[in-house]
Amino acid sequence: MGYCLTGLGGASRVAGDLRASLGYYRQANRSFTALKDTFGKAYSYCGIANALRMKGDFSGALKNFKMAKTNYRRIGDKVSYAYTLWGEGTAYQLLGKDAPAHKDFIEAERLFRDTKDKRGLVYCMMSLGELEFRKDPKKGMRMLKKALKRAEALGIGVETGYARRLLRTAEKTPDKLPLNLA
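Request: output the structure for the sequence above.
Response:
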């Protein structure tokens, strides 16, 4: 039941229903806590954190990312830890804290390379491209275009859509970067 709830939480977040997403993840977290399921707790904390980040509650998001990292570290799940770092980095980026964001993205990128997670690498390419765009728009655009090409080549539709949104925003309303992607 808990894993079904996390699936509903993730689908709701991507669909833009953040209230439902948060509710599903919190319900899953209660279930996993009662079952003493460390992976489930970590996964649901990360989901709660991402839903809070999307709602603009960065303090709550960072607190839950920390809980997720603690639990993922406990079981040695590098891929999920890397996605948690990416989410945390995005929260920092949205707060204008580029140094800790960059650190999280670089560490997540290293873990994604180690685990051969190509999808995660696309997320890092997009996020690092956003950071770079603010310093050097031409270089940032190249990075974002590379992320789009990689997402298209992998056939990952959600990420392809995100990369296209980032490029459109960078071209038309660059002051709106960074975006708060699901």
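Residues 77-182 form a domain with the Serine Threonine Protein Phosphatase 5, Tetratricopeptide repeat fold (CATH 1.25.40).
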